[in-house]
C-alpha cells in the first residue's frame, strides 16, 4: 500500500514538473502580465527623455526590423557619467527575435562629434545619449533609431518595480 501511494505521488510530481517545464515560458509571461507589467511600465514612463529630433509619430512595435542602443551609465549627482554597458539590440518583430550585441566599454573608436579616437565609453561622457548613439552607429555601421538608458538608481527602481 505504501509503495502504491509513493508511486502515485512520484508520478504526479513528475507529471507536474514536466508540464511546468514545457510551459515555463507561457507561465512566466502570464505571471509578468498579471503581477508586474503595469508597475514596470509606470516606472519606465517616468524616465523617458526623447533625443533631439525624436518623434513618436510611428508605432514602436512595427513589422520592420529596427535597432535600439541600450546604455547602462554610472551617472551620479555632480559627476560626469560614462556608459559602463553598451548593447545594440536588433529587434525583428516578424520573427519574434532580438539579437543583442555587447560592445566592450574600452573599445577604441572614433568618437563622433569629438574628432578623436578614444574609448567608446567616453562618448557618453563627452556628449550624452546623442553622441553615444552616433558613435555606436558609426562603429557598427548600423542606423540606430531608438535608445534606452538606465543608471544605478533607475536599475534599482526597475528591479523594485519587478518585485525584486
TrEMBL record:
InterPro entries: LytR/CpsA/Psr_CW_biosynth, LytR_CpsA_psr
Domain Cell envelope-related transcriptional attenuator intervals: 82-164
Family statement: Belongs to the LytR/CpsA/Psr (LCP) family.
Name of the protein in question: Membrane-bound transcriptional regulator LytR
Organism encoding this protein: Paenibacillus pini JCM 16418
Amino acid at each position: 500500500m505504501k509503495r502504491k501511494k509513493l508511486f502515485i505521488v512520484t508520478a504526479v510530481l513528475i507529471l507536474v514538473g514536466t508540464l511546468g517545464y514545457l510551459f515555463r515560458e507561457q507561465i512566466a509571461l502570464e505571471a509578468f502580465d498579471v503581477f508586474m507589467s503595469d508597475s514596470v511600465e509606470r516606472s519606465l514612463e517616468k524616465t523617458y527623455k526623447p533625443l533631439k529630433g525624436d518623434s513618436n509619430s510611428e508605432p514602436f512595435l512595427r513589422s520592420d526590423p529596427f535597432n535600439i542602443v541600450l546604455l547602462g551609465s554610472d551617472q551620479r549627482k555632480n559627476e560626469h557619467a560614462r556608459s559602463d554597458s553598451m548593447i545594440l539590440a536588433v529587434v525583428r518583430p516578424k520573427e519574434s527575435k532580438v539579437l543583442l550585441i555587447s560592445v566592450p566599454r574600452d573599445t577604441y573608436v572614433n568618437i563622433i562629434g569629438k574628432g578623436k579616437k578614444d574609448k567608446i565609453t567616453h562618448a557618453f561622457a563627452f556628449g550624452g545619449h546623442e553622441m553615444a548613439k552616433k558613435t555606436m552607429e558609426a562603429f557598427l555601421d548600423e542606423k540606430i533609431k531608438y535608445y534606452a538608458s538606465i543608471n544605478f538608481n533607475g536599475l534599482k527602481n526597475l528591479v523594485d518595480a519587478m518585485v525584486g
